[in-house]
Amino acid sequence: MELPAMVLFIVLLLSSHLGAASVSDRKLYVVYTGRRASHEDIHAAHKHNHATLANVLGSSEAVQDSMIYSYKHGMRGFAAFLTNEQADAIAKKDGVLSVISNKLHKVHTTQSWSFLAGMPAQTWTGTEEWYSKKAQNVIIGMLDSGIWPESKSFHDDGMEPVPKRWRGACVPGEKFTRDDCNKKIIGARFYFKGINAEAPLNASGANFTLSARDDDGHGTHTASTAAGRVVLRASFPGNIASGTARGGAPLARLAIYKVCWNDFCSDADILAAIDDAIADGVDIISMSLGPNPPQSDFFSDTISIGSFHAMRHGIFVSCSAGNSGVPGSAANVAPWIATVGASSIDRDLASNVVLGNNMSIKGEAANPDSMAAPWSRLVPASSIPAPGVPSVNASFCQNNTLDASKVKGNIILCLQPSALDSRPLKSLVIKQLGGVGMILVDEIAKDIAESYFLPATNVGAKEGAVIATYLNQTSSPVATILPTKTVRNFKPAPAVAVFSSRGPNSVTPEILKPDITAPGVSILAAWSPVATKAVGGRSVDFNIVSGTSMSCPHITGVAANLIAKFPRWSPAAIKSAIMTTASTLDNTGAAINNQFFQTVSGPFDFGAGHVRPNLSLRPGLVYDTGFHDYVSFLCSIGSLKQLHNITHDDTPCPSAPIAPHNLNYPSIAVTLQRQRKTVVYRTVTNVGTPQSLYKATVKAPSGVVVNVVPECLSFEELHEKKSFTVEFSAQASSNGSFAFGSLTWSDGRHDVTSPIAVLTS
């Protein structure tokens, strides 16, 4: 019996590429050989890559066995399996700029858009701007875990034909045909050769589909957040977070590049996808993924390098900042990337605990299930360890740590030992042992709604102490866990999420990161119904997820609307408009707080502030930056050879490269020496009112004197540029800590604000 064509295709892929990773003496390397010249045919670029590798390996047959990608669109180079000796030999060849060992990155894993419309000084204008048909000309490239094309969020009813400039493809694969693309999903590709070199898919034990179809849910969630169509009556099971789901740019087109498998994404695959996205003609690249901290320098980080080439082709790149949550942990910090942190919204998902004494305890979860019985016995996990297991280990409710006979029929009180320990897995352990509920004491995640395998909820340390007191004072303690109640108009919001990675920038502190924050806590968006593991075993069409992965596509959607309105603006101008119109106030009018610490947030937490989409469409002034500015910046922090690792050509360094703090960026970060003046240079472009006068207002960082020269900028026409300087003088040492302030240019209609961070040595 003959195999169907698609099955045969998959078998061949598995045998040719999935088995390749078993070669023990070879590793996967990414080799850069230069930028493809505009006049160079892509076939000539591929031939050059082939010849470079053949020169070391000795034959075309060896090249076929070694090379898995040939980069030939936005850049020139290849990914290949090499021994250490072969990699060293290639690195010494003329024309080879760099040889980098392949690395893995992780994904950084609605009401949010309505909330953004209600931010202070934000005016909702409905379809007039947000749903403009001009957005149908904008193409968003999503580099993620694929897409579930059947989702209601991706229908193409009423959409115009695909833009003629689109040059991409809808690549068929397992359970995915060309018919799965439409006028909404206009392209789909998938990349697995790189991930398979590091973590063979057929040895992972997880289900995977060799196509752009999303097994994980993450890519479907981010794509619908950025550009999902309007879906009425969307909700999580139990009518949780119900309402109208929509993306930021519902009419924008989606091009899908599946680069992530089982939460991991390979350098080689990411770079291949960026290379294709440039050639396909996308306007935006959105990546909710990145390296673990600390990030490597820009000259050896493939996301930085790939996004540089995207920027050079006029493509806006937005990336998640990461979920490490500690100072200096922000990822994707190159200045040509929009780096996005996460914050909460004005919706709370309360799943409260009621104790036997009728005391109600605040809990947080996406919990659609009612308890089977009105009351169940409440048992601390530490009191029921499995034989030989210490009580403290049992308290964490991990596999093989609890006495099954004492779990059955009870609600178990568990503790969270670290942020890395899986919360849903604890609920699965308890369910498999016959438990009926779980209360998880987790101070860090007390405000983050997880979904579990049985009725369960998160409580904070204070609430946990109340429960512990009840347990100690009651001979037969009982409790019940209530299904989630959606609380709207929650205040205060936003707050910076506890997990959101913070600044300062670990590569170049003079470039303030993150750039901006957007909703990333308990976000409802489309989901893959086969991705049940992350939803407590349920098959759902919409899921509630938290992470900077969720905040990044919010900025992607905002950028899509800006590009629709201003198609000729540079990526830097788009980012400037988003940053300089952000808010640093919550919905009570107070300063935005940090979610966990309940302290006032600052630029290293939220960058320029919380995004205000409609105001970003009217920024007044923008800080524009282009290719040659970034080249000068790179020359100031690295060598000419390092520069060429990124540019992939013979671009020269200027005779006097700009200092990093003088890159024309919408924020200012500078290190001062006491009693010495430091001058920062900036240039703004008028995109507001032709005849306008802007005046400067400064909130000086503590211990620093700030002077702006000139104090007023007068414009006579649109697109006119004006330069100014900001002079800093430190009056006292900051004792190793940054001090923060801001600079605002205002003409009475537009407030153009830049955060300031100063370190005095």
What does this structure look like?
With 761 residues, the chain is an alpha/beta fold. The chain folds into four domains: 5-101, Alpha-Beta Plaits (2-Layer Sandwich); 108-346 and 493-621, 3-Layer(aba) Sandwich (Rossmann fold); 350-488, Glucose Oxidase, domain 1; 627-760, Immunoglobulin-like, CATH 2.60.40.2310. It has 19 helices and 39 strands. Strands 7-10-6-13-15-16-27 form a seven-stranded parallel β-sheet, with helices on both faces. The chain has a seven-stranded mixed β-sheet with strand order 19-18-24-20-21-22-23, with helices on both faces. A five-stranded mixed β-sheet has the order 32-39-38-34-36, with no helix packed on it. It is globular and about 80 Å long. The model is unreliable at 1-23 and 120-131 (pLDDT under 50). Residues 29-107 form the Inhibitor I9 domain. Residues 136-590 form the Peptidase S8/S53 domain.
